[in-house]
Amino acid sequence: MKAPRDTFRDEALTAALEQALASGRPESRAPLYDRLRRASGLPGVRLNVGIVQAFAAECARRGAEMDKLIAAMLALHEDVAPYGHVDEIFPILGVAGAGARAAADEKVRRPFLETLEEAACERTRFRIRDMVATMLVQIGVAAGPSFAEVLLRWASDDQPFLALAVAQAMYEDELLAALGSEGVCAVVDALLGRVDREHRAGRRHDAFRRLCRVMEKTPSIAAVRYPAVAVVLDKWAAREDEDVREILGLTVEKLRKGRAQPLAQPLADALVKSTKPLRDPRHGRLPGKRGRGKH
């Protein structure tokens, strides 16, 4: 999401927001909700990102007076606002508002990060998960290098959806610049560690498979920004975990096509060096080993 607008462009929408905030009663939100529905772009494949940006900017500008509205929007469960329904716009706006508040006001950052943590674990509404990743970028830019501690905790959590949000956020150069080389290296290390320690049954779950797909790009993007990330990748190349090795193999391919080509070959060599010899598929034994014959 690009830099947010300063306010809504629609004066009627601004007036509806003012009315909802002034009253504070749930029924007073009806005109605002109606206008947001019409401006949302939902149902459909193209969410109106501009309206989300404007709402986030309003939340950052107005501060605490928006908190009840944010909470009301986030409270709409998937049974009421399922994926693809026009009302899905409200929890999306709630996430954007929570992220904007966390970025703008350090005093409320912790509780709003807890709110985003819950939203990141949405199982069916991927737009909400994507918005969490977007807002992590904005919060990270505002918080600076210390935000790496939050990302490390999310990346290491047992819930793979949290690591997924971090891996997506790490696509953005703004966040990488804010974290600095040391922070980025630590987060990439934690993400690969999260993949490595997943138990066998968990690897079949949708959240983990999504994490692995996103991680096909995260290490190469980070390494292009900070070549020191290559040291982290070389360390993980010694591991036997198939998913980690597949991620690193794809990282080699992407590095070879980009600006960080010199980093690709050492990582490729490290993967080859740590590859175990394959068993002979015809005889089920290692090359050079004699099978047991009948005597």
Account of the 3D structure:
Helix 5 runs antiparallel to helix 6 and helix 8 (148-156) packs parallel to helix 10 (173-196). This protein has 295 residues and is mainly alpha-helical. The protein has helices spanning 11-23, 30-39, 49-62, 67-74, 89-104, 109-119, 126-143, 148-156, 160-169, 173-196, 206-214, 218-225, 229-236, 242-257, 264-273. The longest helix has 24 residues, at 173-196. The mean pLDDT is 92.
Quick summary of this structure?
With 295 residues, the chain is mainly α. Helices cover 62% and strands 0% of the residues.
What kind of assembly state do the chains in view correspond to? single chain
Q: What gross morphology would you assign?
A: elongated
Number of helices: 15
β-strand number: 0
Order of helices and strands: HHHHHHHHHHHHHHH
Radius of gyration: 23 Å
Q: Look at the structure and give the mean pLDDT.
A: 92
Q: Whole-Å distance between the termini?
A: 72 Å
Question: Keywords, please?
Answer:
295 residues; mainly alpha; 62% helix
Topology:
Elements: H1 11-23, H2 30-39, H3 49-62, H4 67-74, H5 89-104, H6 109-119, H7 126-143, H8 148-156, H9 160-169, H10 173-196, H11 206-214, H12 218-225, H13 229-236, H14 242-257, H15 264-273
Helix pairs in contact: 1-2, 3-5, 4-5, 5-6, 5-7, 7-9, 7-10, 8-9, 8-10, 9-10, 9-11, 10-12, 10-13, 12-14, 14-15
